[in-house]
Design a protein that fits this description.
heterodimer; A: 204 residues; alpha+beta; 3-stranded antiparallel β-sheet; 6 helices; 11 strands; disordered C terminus; B: 105 residues; alpha/beta; Nucleotidyltransferase, domain 5; 5-stranded mixed β-sheet
């Protein structure tokens, strides 16, 4: 059976450079093959060690669960350690990611567009050239595609009254409360998912 | 700078196609030399993955912007990594001519 497909990881700030090279007289004498650091690993390292978020907060930013984030982060550290110790190059590329670019809305021609060059401020509409440009964050959040990115197909459900809310990655159901009964929620889980968990539990 | 516009037909009067991956034609418009090229979309009748195939086709013409009615979920990360800007025009009554006029601003 093929492994479960990976969720797309959100990368807010892509790296400035494509990689790093060792220098000095002995550089490049050992293993010359570069270590491939994925974009999501770079992002995990940036969030954790540069922006100093904890794993829980960072996992929410990247749209993955906390354990997945920790795996990505530890993989990043291992790869960097490997490159440092063996004096290898680091190339930052690949990985299952999508880049977060802001959406804007032009009032003049009523079009939506995104900003590719993050460092430059958007002043003019790329289509009609007018300067009546506003940020369209609310529209983006409510568009069905964006919701699919942040939400999981599963639901958190109240064991008492049956209240349901969509489950979010990185936010455990047991930390959510039912608004009417005020009790902890549980994962609704699709039937095959339940079976899978059950079967896995028996083996151990 | 080259701009791709999704079109329902191969003339100036054609309407903009609201879909990206399964549009009939791409119009490659060079805003500097004013050269226009109509390219039939090869990925139109693909069973699946029409979007990424269409991106490949358009990216081979070195466009910097794409104007369409809607972009699928697989397209955004691709275009972001290729540094191609997406412009979403929600008005289905716009003709290719109108879009080109707007681009000339």
């Amino acid at each position: 059976m093929s492994p479960r497909s990976k969720r797309l990881r959100k990368v807010i700030n892509p790296p400035l450079v494509k990689g790093f090279k060792p220098y000095g007289p002995d550089a490049g004498k050992g293993i010359t093959e570069a270590v491939n650091l994925h974009f999501e690993e770079y992002e995990a390292l940036r969030l954790c060690d540069y922006d100093k978020y904890n794993h829980h907060e960072a996992s929410g930013i990247m749209g993955v669960s906390r354990p997945t984030f920790t795996r990505i982060y530890s993989s990043a550290r291992q790869k960097i350690a490997l490159a440092f110790v063996e004096g290898r190059q680091i190339s930052i590329e690949g990985g299952k990611v999508y880049f977060d670019s802001d959406w804007y809305h032009c009032i003049n021609c009523k079009c939506f567009f995104n900003n590719i060059e993050k460092d430059q401020k958007v002043e003019y509409c790329p289509l009609c050239g007018s300067n009546k440009v506003i940020e369209a964050e609310s529209e983006v959040e409510s568009s069905p595609e964006e919701i699919r990115e942040d939400e999981c197909a599963d639901f958190c459900v109240c064991p008492q009254c049956g209240y349901e809310q969509p489950h979010h990655h990185g936010r455990p159901c047991s930390h959510q409360f039912c608004p009417s009964c005020n009790v902890h929620l549980k994962r609704k889980a699709r039937p095959n998912f339940q079976q899978f968990r059950h079967g896995k539990g028996k083996k151990h | 700078m080259k701009v791709a516009i999704t079109s329902t037909g191969n003339s100036h009067d054609s309407l903009i196609d609201p879909r990206f991956g399964r549009c009939a034609y791409f119009v490659i418009y060079d805003t500097e030399s004013k050269v226009i090229a109509f390219i039939p979309n090869k990925a139109r009748d693909a069973e699946e993955g029409a979007g990424p195939q269409a991106v490949q086709q358009v990216a081979s013409h070195e466009v910097k912007k794409i104007v369409s009615g809607e972009f699928g979920i697989k397209i955004k990360p691709l275009l972001d990594s290729l540094k191609i800007q997406m412009i979403v025009v929600k008005d289905p009554d716009k003709r290719i001519m109108d879009i080109m006029e707007m681009l000339d601003h």
